[in-house]
Amino acid sequence: MRVEDFDMFATLLKQRSGLVLTKDKAYLLESRLMPVARKWNMKGLDELAATVRTRKDEALLRDITEAMTTNESSFFRDQKPFDQFKQIVLPRLLEARASKRQIRIWSAACSSGQEAYSLAMLLNEDAAKVAGWRIEIIGTDISAEMVERAKAGVYTQFEVQRGLPIQMLVRHFKQQGDKWQINPNLRQMVSFREWNLLGDLGALGQFDVVFCRNVLIYFDQPTKAKVLDGIARLMPQDGVLYLGGAETVLGITDRFKPVDGQRGLYTLATGGFSPPAGMRAAV
Q1: Cα–Cα nearest to 237, from 109, 141, 97, 112
Q2: Contact 220, 166 (CB under 8 A)
Q3: pLDDT tens-digit map of 60-108
């Protein structure tokens, strides 16, 4: 790939998705964009680059962006965040929201929906505790294809074997040939939308809990700060933000601070989430 074409694609992806591509990732760009070129009946990446320069076709730009964004997810990925949610976050929110009995949860960059459905399963298994509550789980992703997959809730044998306990598979899924589909009651607990984290997040409304895990690692520092600032604007003073194990707010923004004793959990610097008494130690 010519240097000027790489630079053009890298700039396009940075503007549209926040993804930062360095020169050593040229091979990745080539391997992922060749199928896009073929889909659009182009001979190769030279023609694809020339077309992007001369014709601002939104459908083509979308295909390029979706081809390059990483869609990696699994049920109960890393497990610890879900243990924290069940044992610490949810009990505290049920206590703090007892008067309005409403909780909103956002799974940002949700990919094909496993994180959001994992939360739905946890809530379903604690159904007695949340009876009478309005609990919304919203998953968003920049990829229209991933959003449609998430809505369908259909997964391969390989996908359901990654992190999903067999008891939950039997309880919450129905087998369809060689695939598995989430039961309708869980699909109704989650709504999915196409959304860009770099865009205006305000229309999504306020969230008590935000999962934005393993997303910031693909952004540069200014983009990380912009996304975190946008998330902070959506959260109440005692809201909770989850980041991935390799991510942090330190040195990026002063809008958040770590929750004492809870690795990977953050709350607004001006307010603060406080775990229930007796649950201050790290999970």
Answers
A1: 97
A2: no
A3: 888 888 787 766 689 999 999 999 999 999 999 999 999 999 999 999 9
Q: How far apart are CA 257 and CA 37, in angstroms?
A: 44
Percent above pLDDT 70 for the chain: 96
Phi, psi of 5 (to 5 degrees): -75, -40
SS3 per-residue string spanning the chain: CCHHHHHHHHHHHHHHHCCCCCHHHHHHHHHHHHHHHHHCCCCCHHHHHHHHHHCCCHHHHHHHHHHHCCCCCCCCCCCHHHHHHHHHHHHHHHHHCCCCCEEEEEECCCCCCHHHHHHHHHHHHCHHHHCCCEEEEEEEECCHHHHHHHHHCEEEHHHHHCCCCHHHHHHHEEEECCEEEECHHHHCCEEEEECCCCCCCHHHCCCCEEECCCCHHHCCHHHHHHHHHHHHCCCCCCCEEECCCCCCCCCCCCCEEECCCCCCEEEECCCCCCCCCCCCCCC
The pTM score is 0.83
Domains of the chain in start order, with CATH, are 3-68 (1.10.155.10), 80-268 (3.40.50.150)
Using a 10 angstrom Cβ sphere, with 0-12 exposed, 13-18 middle and 19 or more buried, the burial of residue 43 is exposed
Structure confidence at residue 261 (pLDDT): 84
pLDDT per residue over 163-173, tens digit each? 899 999 999 99
Give me the residues paired with residue 164 across strands.
Answer: none
For residues 115 and 77, the answer to whether their CB atoms sit within 8 Å is: yes
Q: Residue 279 has what pLDDT? A: 56
- Token code pair at residue 104: 């909103």
